[in-house]
Amino acid sequence: MKVTKLRPEEITTVLLAVLSVVLLRLSGIGFDYIPHLLLNDSYLIFLTLGTVFILSVSEIDISTFGIVSLSVLGALYINYELGSNDNLYTLIGLIISFSVILSLLNAFLVIRLNWDSILATIATLSLFSGLTLIIYNMTYLHSRPNAEHTGMIRPYEIPADLERLLEYNFLSIEINVFLIALIMILVSVFINRTKLGLKLMAVGQSSLSASYCSINVAAIKLTSFILAGLMYGVGGILYISDFDTTNPGYLAGDIVIPIMCAVLSGADINGGRLPIIFTIAGVVTYSSLTNIVNVLIPGNNADAYSAFFGSFLIVYLFVRYKTSQRR
Amino acid sequence: MATFRFKDIRLEYVPGNEILTNASLQVENGNITLLEGDNGVGKTSLLKLLGGLIPDKSGNGSIENFQKNNPRKFYYFPEDMLFPDFTVLEYLWLTDTETTIRFGSQYYQFQRVVESLLTEFRIEASPFTIIRELSTGNRTLLKFASLMLDAYHVLLLDEPTSHLDEEKLTVIVSKTTEYIKRNASYCIISTHDSRLMSHNSIAKNAKRYRIDNKVIKKVGNESH
Questions:
Q1: Comparing C-alpha atoms, which of A197, A258, A239, A218 is closest to residue A60?
Q2: Which of B85, B101, B127 is closest, CB to CB, to A272?
């Protein structure tokens, strides 16, 4: 059986992940920490997947994951107001639907009105952050009195059957790791073995050539926005699962992180391939680097993180551009 | 064999500056129609107009009728660089209307189809070669190989033979001629490649037109 050989950017992705894990070990953190690393950042895997979908058609939609925290916030608000926090499945449905609807708005601005996607995404990000403030009477949810006094560990309760399933271990590895791997395999099969996945990659590589192949470019871009919204919704749920409060600024402040993870996974910022499986390697690299920076720069220095990752992203993209030119 | 007559074709780059005025063109399915003319006379734009890639402003409905009756179109334009990051197999799968999902035996069957197309079109590549690694000539051949995976009503080909050597040009001409006869497709080629114009089967059978002075003239015949 002959299969497609690994591309240079895929080899780089794997090598970087291995190197960062080795560096992590040298900084004093054990290999057994890796599954926990992935679990802690499982929300990031989904945000990265969403970003990979959007980048695949040469667009960007950073506002959607800013909006995700808004949708989580909205769902939480409904939960508080209704006085019920036991219906996790309704909450999940609500958050994901909200996230998809909001990404459709960005899709409308970009595809229908031909806005530049970076302009659309910044405009809607500001709009929704402002609207949230107005809706909550100029106070974010974290400063609402009942958020502190409800005594909730999580903003929602996990049903007992699901809790039992999540506690299950196999070969000393938590079941969550296998669940993430399963989801990645399913998404990867969808992308690499269906015509829709192929069309997503085709539009990103050349929308002109795609239109000559009778591909409906607008419909495919819309699909990528919907898929991204879906992934951002799931990412939002996982992100919020360890907090009892949130505000739209939480994820909006970290907008460069999923973009960085997507790039570290081998995604091209100019569109093209969808490195689904490699997303795990990208997130592992990022998480390892975060931990290394944490060891090197003690204390929670957000500005130092931003400076490090911002410059890392620029240098990494520049090196990749130069090597692809040489090829 | 059916014929179709485009009437009163109007084409302008900028409003008020027409490059074709009240021109007519008759095409025949199963036969090649050759559009000749100097650079900049509007050959490519005419192909795009007939293919629905630029809007028809004539308002007489003949192009619209043609589009409606012949919805499946195959385009070849030099600016179409295919998809550089795809493998040959992925590209051909994209253009294959039959297969929507590839799993198991279906995958290997399609791989064999691709291998036979590569041999048939004499493309020096494997199904897993990345398109960016192909020469321009092989990319052109690959585009024509994709033609075989669907039954198109219309073929609109802009300077398809510019980058081909004599041997590859012959492959393209014979495959295209065979294809349009089998599928009763319309085929309009714009060219100023003298090798194509003088090619045996083209010289013998093709309808030849020349764009000159804002009108389309049948070569060696009266104005249309």
A1: A258
A2: B85
